UniProtKB/TrEMBL annotation:
<dbReference type="InterPro" id="IPR023439">
    <property type="entry name" value="Mal_deCO2ase/Cit_lyase_ACP"/>
</dbReference>
<comment type="function">
    <text>Subunit of malonate decarboxylase, it is an acyl carrier protein to which acetyl and malonyl thioester residues are bound via a 2'-(5''-phosphoribosyl)-3'-dephospho-CoA prosthetic group and turn over during the catalytic mechanism.</text>
</comment>
<dbReference type="GO" id="GO:0000036">
    <property type="term" value="F:acyl carrier activity"/>
</dbReference>
<comment type="similarity">
    <text>Belongs to the MdcC family.</text>
</comment>
<feature type="modified residue" description="O-(phosphoribosyl dephospho-coenzyme A)serine">
    <location>
        <position position="25"/>
    </location>
</feature>
<keyword id="KW-0597">Phosphoprotein</keyword>
<dbReference type="InterPro" id="IPR009662">
    <property type="entry name" value="Malonate_deCO2ase_dsu"/>
</dbReference>
<dbReference type="Pfam" id="PF06857">
    <property type="entry name" value="ACP"/>
</dbReference>
<dbReference type="GO" id="GO:0005737">
    <property type="term" value="C:cytoplasm"/>
</dbReference>
<keyword id="KW-0963">Cytoplasm</keyword>
<protein>
    <recommendedName>
        <fullName>Malonate decarboxylase acyl carrier protein</fullName>
    </recommendedName>
</protein>
Amino acid sequence: MDTLNFKRPARAEAIRPALVGYVGSGDLEVMIEPSSAGCADIHIHTSTDGSEARWRQVIELIESVMKLPVMRMDIHDFAATPGVIRLRIEQALELAREDAA
């Protein structure tokens, strides 16, 4: 088990709490909460040791196509593939932005 933490630049925008996915069957759970930290504070609990480089690449890829909001994101991973990781994070971000304003 690894615990990873990333602090990324973020923009202030209205978001609401969001939850997508579930831990199990090679999937992952993504939870988002508004934050006053001034950054995107991402906490990852993963069953895959030595996966920091993979997580960093996925987060950077998401940042290249969408701005991250000021938030706390908690991810519980059970060996999800990079494609599933990206899908779940993007789903959570879309849900957090829906009707938040």
